[in-house]
Amino acid sequence: DLVWGLDPASKQVRVANFHRETVKSCLEIMEASGINSWGEIRPHHVGIRVGQGQVKNYEEVFEHMKVSKGELLEGKGPQPLLHLYNNNNNNK
């Protein structure tokens, strides 16, 4: 019966457990990889399935979105990022 999944109290516990175990597993992978903090994770560390049996890292998938330090401040870089950057700064 699917109705039990709609109980907010039960769902809250399940979501919290799932999140805790996901973070725990991620920390174990980081430790095994020699990564000491979340700040050390880079696009080449994260994989994404792009097809059946095909995985690429974020650096490969989002290569067109690379920016150098300060580029957005100078109005340079990929148009989609410039658009987001400018919209976010105009709303402050």
List keywords for this structure.
92 residues, mainly alpha, two-stranded antiparallel sheet, 3 helices, 10% strand
Kindly describe this structure.
It is a single chain. With 92 residues, this protein is mainly alpha-helical. The chain is 46% helix and 10% strand. It has a two-stranded antiparallel ribbon with strand order 1-2.
Dominant shape: extended
Q: Report the average pLDDT across residues.
A: 88
Number of helices: 3
- Estimate what percentage of residues fall within beta strands: 5-15%
Quantity of strands, as a count? 2
In sequence order, what are the helices and strands, one letter per element? Answer: HEEHH
Question: Mind sketching the topology for me?
Answer:
Elements: H1 8-33, E1 47-51, E2 54-57, H2 58-61, H3 79-90
Antiparallel strand pairs: 1-2
Compact summary:
46% of the residues lie in helices and 10% in strands. It has a two-stranded antiparallel sheet.
